[in-house]
Every structure is written in C-alpha cells, then in structure tokens.
Amino acid sequence: MPYYQTWEEFARAAEKLYLTDPMKVRVVLKYRHCDGHLCMKVTDNAVCLQYKTDQAQDVKKIEKLHGKLMRLMVSKETHSGAMETD
Fold first, then answer.
1. What is the domain range of residue 53?
2. Whole-angstrom Cα distance, residue 24 to residue 26?
3. Residue 66: which of 4, 9, 2, 18 has the closest Cα?
4. In 1-86, which ranges are E strands?
5. Count of structural domains within the chain
6. Is 42 a member of any domain?
7. Which CATH number covers residue 44?
8. Are 1 and 28 in contact (CB under 8 A)?
9. How far from each other are the two terminal CA atoms of the chain, in whole angstroms?
10. For labeling, which of 44, 47, 75, 82 is most exposed (least CB within 10 Å)?
C-alpha cells in the first residue's frame, strides 16, 4: 500500500474509486500527533489508496475532499457526474 506523492493524483483516484462502487468504499482519516502527520486512506477492500502529509496547507485540501465524499455518501441522487461539477 504505497502512499501517493501528489495530492492531485490521490484525489482523482479516490473520486474514481468511490464512483465505481459507493457501497463498498470507506474513508479513514488519522492524525498522529507525535509525528505531526495526517493520513487519509480510501479503500474498497480490493484497492487501497493512501496519502500522508505534514503540511498545514494540505489539511484544507483533505478537508475539502472528505467533505465532498461525505456529501455524496448522504445524497439520494445518482452518483454519476456529481464529482465533476465541483
């Protein structure tokens, strides 16, 4: 389970993974205070995507993607094309 090096690649892959099968995907956020690292993991048990950062500017990006995925998870409308509008 290697970590993605760039945020853009990770965000694109996470959105794609979610849209393929929304019922199987889960998102985990983990902050380790001793290291100062924030890790985001998106998985469907077959594919695992991970991103780790210690930069404060990346926290806003992670928060935005996490919010976007949560809105999709609770919405009742179809998931196709919803991520491209944002």
1. 7-72
2. 7
3. 18
4. 26-32, 37-43, 48-53
5. 1
6. yes
7. 3.30.720.10
8. no
9. 28
10. 75
Low-confidence ranges of the chain (pLDDT < 70): 76-86
Going by C-alpha positions, the residue among 73, 61, 72, 75 that lies closest to residue 29 is: 61
Which are the contacts of 64, defined by CB distance < 8 A and separation ≥ 6? none
Residue type, 12: R
How far out from the chain centre does Cα 65 lie?
A: 6
> Does 68 fall in a domain?
yes
At residue 80, what is the residue type?
A: S
Q: Which residue has the tokens 């889960």?
A: 26
Q: What is the predicted pLDDT for the residue at 47?
A: 94
Instruction: Give the whole-angstrom CA distance, residue 69 versus residue 27.
Output: 9
Report the alpha-carbon angle 19-68-72, nearest 5. Answer: 50
Return the pLDDT at 75: 82
